[in-house]
Amino acid sequence: MSVANALLEEPRLDTFPRLLLHHARVRGERPATREKDLGIWQTWTWSQQAEEVRALACGLAELGFKRGDHLAIIGDNRPRLYWAMAAAQALGGVPVPLYQDAVAAEMAFVLQDAEIRFAIVEDQEQVDKMLEVMGQCPALSHILYDDTRGLRHYIQTELQSLDEVMEMGRIHDRERPEFLDGEIARGEPGDISVMLYTSGTTGRPKGVCQTHFSFITAAKSGCEFDHLGPQDSILSYLPMAWVGDHLFSYAQATVAGFTINCPESGDTVITDLREIGPTYYFAPPRVFENLLTTVMIRMEDASAVKRGMFEYFMAVARRCGAEILDGKPGVSAIDRLLYGLGNILIYGPLRNVLGMSRIRVAYTAGAAIGPDLFRFYRSIGINLKQLYGSTETCAAVCLQPDGEIKFDSVGKPAPGVEVKIAGNGEVLVRGQMLLREYYKLPADTAEAIDSEGYFHTGDAGFFDEDGHLKIIDRAKDVGKTESGALFAPNYIENKLKFFSFIKEAVAFGQGRPMVCAFINIDMGAVGNWAERRNISYSGYTDLAQKPEVYELIRGCIEKANAELAEDPVLSGSQVHRFLILHKELDPDDDELTRTRKVRRGFVAEKYAVLIAALYSGKASQFIETQVKFEDGRSGMVSAELLIMDARIFPAQKKAA
Fold first, then answer.
1. What tens digit of pLDDT does each residue of 264-293 get?
2. What are residue 451's phi and psi, to 5 degrees?
3. 631, pLDDT greater than 70
4. DSSP E strands, 408-514
């Protein structure tokens, strides 16, 4: 049966499979998905995508996948992995995307917890992980793979290629053409549409069950807010297991009918971004930080004339660029003229290098973005905005309206969302985008959602005089130093990470006499800096402990301290002492979550000897640390870490 015949004259558009069929009917020949393969962009229209999903869904049904089953999806952003989500939903099942860079042991927990019988994976690497944990996951009986390379001689009976499954599905559909339409018709908006696991910053990840209704509501709200439609396109490159990607690359694309573009690989994202020139873009702060670091490295290698021109026009942009973007009055004619010239010489070419020439709106979320970083992008003409949300809220709580952008806020509550501040400063949220439950954790669900229906976010914040929400930090992390000064570690860390030489920072100060910090240097930026000064090094550990590098980082910290001194609330949280860690914080070593958030408690416990050294006045401290390599082996990294003091500035009023 054709897609068109499967639709009623006035179809209900309240589940994702129904929305897919709707787009196949009304814009069947428009591009739905693109993927770059072997250097060539392949395109599938909405009509073709609906037929592919149909074949995959029927193939899964032939293998025994049924309503209520959970389907693990593991791999980079690939069309058939996105289609697998729709196929599972069409059958009344629940897709459960996993982080593709997780080690097998981490995956085993989710596979067990979600009671996975079927897994669709990208390639040989993911197949090997599944085979490694099958003994711990007795329910796992079907492993279906997209990319066949390297799998020719695998003989396990649980394995099957997606090509075979989809061919089975086409036969199934010809023999029972009414089957899938009947399954889609049985779907209800209150059914679970996806299970996304939390990052597990403070404990075991929890399966967040979201319904079709909640995600469609959140997607519609965002699309209407930013006027998104079929004419838009987005680069889909962030982990499919992350709520941000599910909202932007799956939910909003399926609601609005715009095109998603899957890059060839993680290494080609910037090139692919420039080729596609999307109108809509989303990235967590760390991606924007890395892009800025790349720009600064290139400028360090530029001629003196180019560096001087860049610095001059960036000063103009900092002075008036954001105001011009927002259409605010008060910018002088001279500044407008200079900014226009800068747009021709600097900002326009820079946006092109970043692949952002056509972007109409860009968002960042997932963690707080430093105000300086935020201002940089807006000052060069990129309409970057922040949104605030979490896995439990479909990533949609607050949005920033055009023309009302504040660098230190996350905007106003999204349409239909209620936000209030509890007596202890915690942000509470209520709306139709809330989770239905944590999977198999009724006590946790009851603890997270109170009797009035408000979800307790765990974030500390407040509303300013214009109704914009400001997030200070995680509520559990905000505290005071021994002297009573407010201590917000995430805010301080973001200040430090604005500098291209600092990749990660972890601040300590709760109940202590002063604030101290661990620093991870950015290997690319600092390595480039060292090479231009003929500073030789053998690797990260060696480079990190160079006295010249310590002086470089001290300069960055003191600049951040000078800015903190102008903040009447946080002037007492300046960084007094710091050290540069001998290794990069790594998710494989459990120091970061898969979304690259610091597991603060774990890091503090693991490196307790270093914290003690910072506060005892030592000038150095020896440490030996076990690390995990990509091939699964373990090893030890040791070093005598230097500890250095940073200059502290007296509190002062911020310059007008």
1. 998 899 899 999 999 999 988 888 888 888
2. -65, -20
3. no
4. 412-413, 418-421, 426-430, 437-438, 455-463, 469-474, 479-480, 486-487, 502-508
What are the respective helix, strand and coil percentages of the chain, to the nearest 5?
40, 20, 35
Which tokens hold the place of 466? 């214009």
Distances (CA, A) of 153 to 75, 168, 310: 21, 22, 55
- Return left, alpha or beta for 544; rule: phi > 0 is left, psi -120 to 50 is alpha, else beta: alpha
Which residues are 281's β-sheet partners?
362
Q: How far apart are the first and last CA of the chain?
A: 68
The beta-carbon contacts of 46-49 under 8 Å, at least 24 apart in sequence, are: 46/20, 46/257, 47/3, 49/20, 49/24, 49/79, 49/83
Crossing angle of the two packed helices 489-497 and 547-565, in degrees rounded to 10: 120
How many residues are there in the chain?
Answer: 656
Helix (H, G, I), strand (E, B) or coil at 634: strand
Determine the Cα–Cα distance for residues 34 and 233; give it in Å rounded to an integer.
Answer: 10
- Rounded Cα distance between 234 and 228, Å, is 11
Residues in a beta bridge with 261: 34, 235
- For residue 619, report the phi and psi dihedrals to the nearest 5 degrees: -95, -15
Residue 593 has pLDDT above 90, yes or no: no
The string of DSSP letters for 610-623 reads HHHHHHHT-SEEEE
Please state, in angstroms and rounded to a whole number, the distance separating the CA atoms of residues 430 and 428.
7
The per-residue pLDDT for range 414-465, each reduced to its tens digit, is 999 999 999 888 999 999 999 999 999 999 999 999 999 999 999 888 898 8
Query: 526 near 533, Cβ under 8 Å?
Result: no
pLDDT given for residue 291 in this prediction: 86
Residues 6 or more apart whose CB falls under 8 angstroms from that of 97 comprise 72, 73, 74, 81, 85, 194, 196, 239, 240, 241, 246
Tell me which residue has tokens 């006499």: 513
Q: Give the chain's domains with CATH numbers.
A: 4-201+237-254 (3.40.50.12780), 479-645 (3.30.300.30)
Residue-wise pLDDT for 118-169, tens only, equals 999 999 999 999 999 999 999 999 999 999 999 999 999 999 999 999 999 9
Q: What is the DSSP letter of 247?
A: I
Residue at token pair 């040791």: 638
- Residue 2 pLDDT: 41
Task: List, for residues 17-30, the tens digit of each pLDDT value.
Answer: 999 999 999 999 99
The pLDDT confidence band at residue 632, using thresholds 50, 70 and 90, is low
Note the pLDDT of residue 653. 63
Q: Which residue shows structure tokens 């959140």?
A: 218
